[in-house]
Amino acid sequence: MGKRRTILLGGLAVVAVVAGAVAVRTATFAPDGIADGSEIRLAAVPAYDLGAAVAHLSEAAQIRTISHQDPAGNDIAEWDRLHGWLAATYPATHRAMQRTILPNRTLIYHWPGSDASLAPIIVMAHQDVVPVTEGTEKDWKYPPFAGTIAEKAVWGRGTVDDKGSLIGLFEAIEALAAQGFRPKRGIYLVSGHDEEAGGSGAVAAAARLKSEGVRALYTLDEGSVVLRDTPVIDGPAILIGVAEKGYATLKVTANAPGGHSSMPPAETGVTTLARAVLDIAESPFPIEMRGPGAAMVEALAAHKGGVTELAVANRWLLGAPLRKQLSASPSSAAAFHTTIAPTMLEGSPKENVLPQSATALINYRIAPWNSSADVMARAKAAVGDAPVELSWVKPPNEPSRVSSSNSEGWKYVVAAARADAPDAVVAPYLVVAATDSRSMEPISEDVYRFMPMHFTLKETAMIHGTNEHMTIDSFRRMIDFYARLIATSAG
Known about the structure:
Helix content: 25-40%
Radius of gyration: 26 Å
Strand order of the largest sheet: 1-2-6-3-7-17
Largest sheet: 6 strands, mixed
Number of strands: 19
Structural class: alpha/beta
Oligomer: single chain
Strand content: 15-25%
Shape: globular
Number of helices: 14
CATH topology of the largest domain: Aminopeptidase
Mean pLDDT: 93
Low-confidence stretches: none
Number of domains: 2
């Protein structure tokens, strides 16, 4: 009886210690190192004509700068048309800024600052848009390249991705230049010609700026938004991308003798390939609460409070159920591990011929704590001694570095964003896709990915999809944001 009592008391003591630790960690929990920008004094938004700005976005949407997978399908004259239109539409900008058109049609604008000791800023938005999937034109409420202004929005391919940002930047800079603004800190506007097809234009622009000795305070590009129905808090959050995942495509090849399908061997090249692809796909990278995804969850949980905050503050105890919840949907899981997605298969050129070579492509989006070497090692371990070859389709893009959420550049971006959404939670964010801004890392102290559009999760589906449109309200917010940010950080 005495021994049992001792064990019981010991167990109760352990529970008490654990409960005490949970209570203390929850009570003292706070996101680590996320500045709110409250000390930044924002410049006023200059006067501009919103109606004219909306008309300009409509006109830009009608210029078909469509990046096809095969560049031979691109109509280069449309890029030249856009450049001429920009020069005619924004005269004050073109008087204030020096324009460089690279041979590939990427644009670099430079507004020199009066104080050469201050690091410049770089703002970005790309010129090109994705094609409209053939046969889906009839599903659009308005023709995808008509730039229709209707239902308090501008409709058309690229109005959100990314001509909304491009025209928003030009409207903001035009208004500042027209009112006589003179920057102390230099301003670069970089507009890649092929973000939707690899981003070689941004690579060339970064190389050009590096050769000129440019070292920017921060770079700002597309990548995230103000999400009105953010998971965890079910409310608005300013999600600022501080990093983006790497990109790699693995080619799996199974070579075989081939022959006639009427006399197949026990295993063909296709079955060998299928087993290898399944082995790779069924060896996923683990869900890990780390990096920008973890920082985002911490910021949201601290705002939410209650059980959510308790769970996040005590990952040492509740890590397993928390990871299970984060992996419940592909969209939430993507921020917490390297993803594996088999996407393309190729085998025989004819249905009754055994292939001599069968191939599969597997697309990876690499988390910041992994590398392409980790991906290759895991794939090789998964297939073991299977008779397949593994190779990269092209050299992988490694994950970006993680930018500061407490630097001077971050504070400027946050302050400008909060002016438009003062009640929204500010959180770092991991961009799971790719942007042109990754090319600016060698010449920029920090790189951020954010557009001040207010979206719901459902509305984000129109990006690259059907019925893409920019609401006039979001466009106004965008112009205001860019004007505040540029005037404050460069003024």
